Each structure stands twice: as structure tokens, then as C-alpha cells.
Amino acid sequence: MRVLFLAPHPFYQDRGTPIAVDLLLRTLSDRGHEIDLVTYHEGKTIEYENVNIYRILNIPFVRDIRPGLSWKKLICDTFMFFKVPLLVLRKHYQIIHAVEESVFIALFLKFFFKTPYIYDMDSSLSQQIVEKYPKLAFLNPLLKFFEKIAIRNSEVVVPVCDSLARFVEKHNPKRLVTLRDVSLLKDVRNGNQSSLRRELGIGDSLIVMYVGNLEEYQGIDLLIEGFALALREMNRADLVIIGGTVSDIQKYKNKSSALGIGDKAHFLGPKPVESLSNYLSQADILVSPRIKGGNTPMKLYSYLHSGKAVLATDLPTHTQILDSYVALLSAPVPTEFSKGMLRLMQDDALRLRLGEAGRKLVEEKYSYESFKKELNSLYNWLEVKFIRKDAQ
Fold it and tell me: Looking at the 3D structure of the chain, how many domains does it have?
């Protein structure tokens, strides 16, 4: 098949959606499809067989594009909008695979060129916009209307989790296939158990670890405040935070110092995905303090796969795959989150039991093999539908 793949974000970067796109491209490339990827000007170039990468114009004043709606993303999406029709006229694609807001570009192309599209849905755009910019809540009915139109005109909607699937079902899609994220760990054996402690000078202290961006919705304020409360009861613990931009790291370093835990909170900055297994293996407790959003954080699958105890907020973003058998769930307030940390810090057996149950869950349900099987099944169906149609 000739596939136009729209990825409206920097590509490649070591964060959620770009990582998911990388997994998709690797699988589709192995199938032998002819794929043209259109993406932003930022990001590391990766070579794939059968994949051509087209970037928008290098815009000098648009740099360091972050997740979520922003004026930078709007500018880049506009450049994508004008770049894509020229490719469609030249290549005559059989399907468009549209990620996130690029679905509206695909909707436009379907209207004018009759090219069918897949809506790869990582989040509800209407929900995401209103959560990040509450003052735009008055636009919510209009945003939901356009989202509904995009869903109903797609050949298939591919949500990333069950909560999004339930949202999509309300709009009567032609077809719905839930394609969940997977663990990014290739090797779950223990890494060098002393290297991080030695590097940070923390001896035999328990390590509470967070991995991911430091956007507000991730609940980093909740994490730091909860950890500060936990240290009042048990001082033999250190917080290690991996990820974030320079400005975000400085912001939370300042907050940690203000709470009197500056020497117990360690910010390592971004690390490559390839090193994730080694870092997770050195943690005692892995935390996901997210306070907003409906989609499941991709990091959760790697957390569970590592075999370490997981503490997460008791919200649908987590509970659609987590329960009390595989993780400790806590209300998203500092006092309760600190109690969850303390319970795990003080109970070695509980940490071991949760870690083993989490690893087993991922190996049974959320492996890369399961992901490939589901994606291949979807594209087998698309090939039958559109290649036969073209042949006729």
C-alpha cells in the first residue's frame, strides 16, 4: 500500500507520541508498505526501509516544541497543511494514517481528493485543549463537534486506551480498533545496581523514581510535595526525576529547595530510551503522579515490565490498566500520595509482590508482539478493502 503518514510533532524525540510513531513505522516498514512521513522540522532523523521522511520548512523562530497545544504547534501544523496536498496530487495514496490533530488535514484531503484516512487518536483534542487552557472552555462544544466529524469520516479510529475507545464509540465510528502502547524495555534484567547510587552519593537509600516530561498535567508538584511529607516520617529515601527541559528542571529544583529537600531530589534530565531499562532496574519505587488526562501514560507499561513497585494516582488515566493487584493507587493529593510512598518504602514484601504482578501483566497483555499482531491485523483489513477496490 501507498501510505501517507502524518505526524504533527518533532520526530524523532524520546517522548510519548514520537515513540509510538516509531513503533508504528517499524511495523509498517517490515510489511513492505511504501510510506511517506510528513512531520515537523525538529527531531532526529531515523532511517527505515520503505519510508521517506518529508519535513516542513525549517522555521528559525520555532524551536523546542513541547507537547500539547501551543502557538508553535499551530504554526507547524499550518506548514504541514500546505505541504501535504502537493504530495497527495503526486503520489495518489491509498490511505492516510493521521496522528492526533493532523486528522483535520486528513479530513480536508478526503473531502477534496477522496483519500480515506485512519484517525490515530492519542488523546481527545477537545479535552486536552480545555484542560490546558480553561479559558477556552466556551469553545468546547465547537471542538467536540469537529472531533465528531473527524471520527465519523475516518475509515477506522485507533484510540490508544479504553477511555478514549468509550469516547469514540459515542460518535458511531465506522470501525474502532484499540491499539495500546507497550513496554519499551527490551531487556528487563537488572542493570548495574550500584551505579546510580554511587553517582548520586546516596548509599543504600531507597530510590523513588519518575520518568517523563515535566509538564503540569504530569503532577510533578504533587510528587515533590508528597515526597517532602514522606521524608518527615522516613528519611532513608531519595527522589530521582528523569526527563524535562532545562527551564522545567530549574523550576522544580527551586521548589524542592523551598520545601527543604533540595539534597534529596535529583534531576538527571532527559535520557535515551535505550538506557531506560538500566535506570528503572535501579529504582525501588516507580511513580506516576499524573493529575489530568484520560489516556494511559506510555511509561506505565515500562514501569510494570521492569518488575518494580508502581505508585500511581487513582484516576482513570491509570485505572484503565492498573488495579490494586499490580500497583498501589493513591488519591491525587500530597497527603495521600505521601502515604502511598511511605507504605511502599516500609513494606519490602509489598514492593516485591506488586513488581512481580506488574511484570506478569505486561508480558501477558502488553508486549510488542501483541502490538504488532493488532496493527498487522488492521492493515490486513485495509489492504483487502482498498487494494481490491483499486484493482476493480
Answer: 2
